[in-house]
Amino acid sequence: MSEQKPKLSEILRSLRRQRGWTLQQVSERCGLPVSTLSKVENDQLTLSYDKLMTLADGLEVDVAELFSQPARDSAQLTAGRPTGRRSLTMPGEGRAFESDNYVDHYLCADLRSKLMTPAISRIKARSIEEFGPLVRHQSEEFVYVISGTVEVHTEFYEPFVMPEGASVYLDSTMGHAYVSVGDEDAWVLVVVCNTHPGAPEGRPEPAAPALEEISS
What are the boundaries of each domain within the chain? Predict the structure, then answer.
């Protein structure tokens, strides 16, 4: 019998209540409107990838935790002693999440409060017009092309193409987008750092201005 996966609405509610925060407090931390958060908690709205990253930053978790069972108290992780933490992901395992532009398979998703979020992703968008607005989130990321060819668009640089075997490391607060070029969707390894350099005590930097709601 397969394990029933928790919904984002349940995860958000659980994480918020663990911290004793109201929806208004979550909104102030992540920049998403209270109305959007309320719709997510009531299972009336899904979020795009960049908004999920923004929500994860505000809740001080890695994005994979938004698709896993509610986390237990992680105070031991900050106690300054070795924890012996480890997580193994076998072929075909991981937490899958599909958005308009990507199909992400989050690896080692059972490990909480990670400093890095690794994923294998299939890039669905075939042009920047199809992708839409560039995304931003409070982190840095590394991308390695496993197969196919990827065109990278960023806020401050001219677009460039990465063939199989190429990699890039970039500041995720800079607007960016990955699109597949060629006959098939590209597959990439993505590793996102869950804190941004300069954030005090390893915590996310102040939240970005409020984002507009998206339709379900």
Answer: 8-72, 95-193
